[in-house]
Each structure stands twice: as C-alpha cells, then as structure tokens.
Amino acid sequence: MIAEKLKRSPLRGHASQFAAASDALGDRLAIRELAFLSQVDLRADPGDVAVMERLRAGLGFALPQIPNTTSEDQQELIEGALRSALSDAPGAVTDVSATRTVVELRGPLARDVLATGCPVDLHPRVFGPGRCAQTLLGKAQVIVQLAEPTPAFWVYVRSSFAGYVADWVLDAVAGEMAVKPDR
Q1: Lower CB count within 10 Å: N or C terminus of the chain?
Q2: Of 6, 18, 48, residue with least CA distance to 166
Q3: CATH class given for the domain over 2-38+98-174
Q4: Domain 40-95 class?
C-alpha cells in the first residue's frame, strides 16, 4: 500500500511537453508515456521441451520461440503461471516493471521520428506487428516494439535514461516539424 503511494513516473515532468508536441502535430504523431506497464522477465532453457510445454500449458499459449518477438497478457496471470510451470526447473521469473518506462509514439510520423536515431530497419516489411528489438535510440539502450500496425511504437527505456530519451524524442519531433511542416 505504501509503495503504491510512492510510485512516481520517471517522465511525469514531460507530460505537458508530450501533449504540446502531439497537439502541434495533429493526427500525424501522438506521444505519451505509458507509466507502470507490466513487464515480466523469464529466463528458461528454450531447448528444454518439457519445461517449454509446462510453460505453454500453464499460460494457455506458447511463448515466442523466434528472437525479437513478443507476447502479451495480464502480468499477474503470466507471472504466477510462469512460476508454477517453471517449478523446480532451472530458471527465473522476475517482475521488472519498475526498471523501465514506456514512451509511445503513435501515428504516421512515428517510424520517421524513430528512424532518425535508431539503427534498426523499422520498415513494415521487416519490422511488423509483434516485433521488438533491443537497440539504441540516440545514445540510450532501449527496446523498441511495434505495438500496433497503425503504427504505434513502444520504446522501453530504463528509468535512469527516461529523461534523455524523452528529450531526444522531443528534439527529433521539433526537427520533423522544422524540416517537413506540411507532412
């Protein structure tokens, strides 16, 4: 209960800047923080067929086996099911929600803005729905996920680098507005 009262978003001071940039860009780009998004880290041997089957049975769906892909569900359900299914097998299930925040870029300009500082090819033919990549954005290590094909990208950033990434995004957006005002 006390911890809930002490929760503070790492980007709480950027909300008005995100809103102003989003208003200026209209339907071309919306920027917001998705604070306190549930995130669970699973470490298990994907080659252990019995463990992977127990995890699939416990979750009700198979975990992604292809690198840089995602799956989504309710954190509490996933975390409990993973712990139960992993049982005594070597591995770990850890709630990592507090270590990162998420910056969402949604709209036709999202891909262009990210491309100015991200070395990953984000073109839809390569980086489609359900894809993610650990990469750099500017000089910060992030995870980029295509959350929706609209496009809506989620940029997972460690809390200690959140301010840098937020400022980087706002600078990139200002550059887009200055260079291509009619887009």
Answers
A1: N
A2: 18
A3: alpha beta
A4: alpha beta
